[in-house]
Amino acid sequence: MAHAPGLSAVIVDDHPAVRAGVAQWLTTGAPPIRVAASGDDVRVAWTGEGATADVVILDLHLGGPTPAINDLRRLTEAGRRVVVYSMRAADDIALQCLELGALSYLTKAEGAAHLLEAAAAAASGRACTPPSLAGALAGDRSTDRPSLSARETEVLIEWFQSESKDFVGQRLGISPRTVNTHLEHIRIKYAMSGREAPTKAALLARAIQDGLVRVDDL
């Protein structure tokens, strides 16, 4: 995938070696992604050049066993585009992060190519599905019906009943960017289930087929 030029990132990770490695990957990519700031505390994403970086690369465990879920929530609610980069490979944590609005979730076992792709996609407001996340998003592979979270279903139904993502955001108390993130995740889940839904009309058809919404509700 070609990267858009002029992208910037802020790296939040409590391990200096990881910060250095991620910065090396980003700055030597083709084309490079400029590292606007980096640090071991999420405050680096709110101050100085870090406050305006296109994408936040966020370690989910900053100096302890408790995931930085509240930090992630504050970032996404503020409209920041976040790629979670974590040691943990648990599906439930990955799905929770996506539910909160992260655009991608990568484990640190994944290499430079996947991180570069996820960072570039997130900087452009798009979700990205690395290999470690594919299984979590596909859910039960015994069926072609994807498993949507309660929030995703809520966003989907509101979107079908609305003229714009702005209006959906107002109705649900979330930003239009977060609305778009949920819709991106829903489309990825359908694609992973072998039933792509690239347009609103196609997504509506899938939702009706799966009983998520009735024609009478529209």
What can you see in these coordinates?
The protein has 218 residues and is an alpha/beta fold. It has a 5-stranded parallel beta sheet, with helices on both faces. The relative contact order is 0.11. The mean pLDDT is 84. The protein is globular. α1 (16-27) links the parallel β1 and β2. Helices cover 44% and strands 11% of the residues.
List keywords for this structure.
218 residues, alpha/beta, 5-stranded parallel sheet, 5 strands, 44% helix
Helix content: 40-55%
Which ranges are low-confidence, i.e. pLDDT below 50, for 5 or more consecutive residues?
none
Strand numbers in spatial order across the main sheet: 2-1-3-4-5
What is the number of beta strands?
5
Radius of gyration: 17 Å
Mean pLDDT: 84
In terms of structural class, how would the helical and strand content be classed?
Answer: alpha/beta
Order of helical and strand elements: EHEEHEHEHHHHHH
State the distance separating the first and last CA atoms: 37 Å
- Percent of residues in beta strands: 5-15%
Write the topology of this structure.
Layout: E1 8-12, H1 16-27, E2 34-39, E3 55-58, H2 69-77, E4 82-86, H3 91-99, E5 104-107, H4 112-123, H5 131-138, H6 150-160, H7 165-172, H8 176-192, H9 200-209
Parallel strand pairs: 1-2, 1-3, 3-4, 4-5
Short description:
By secondary structure, the chain is of the alpha/beta class. The protein is built from nine helices and five strands, in the order E-H-E-E-H-E-H-E-H-H-H-H-H-H.
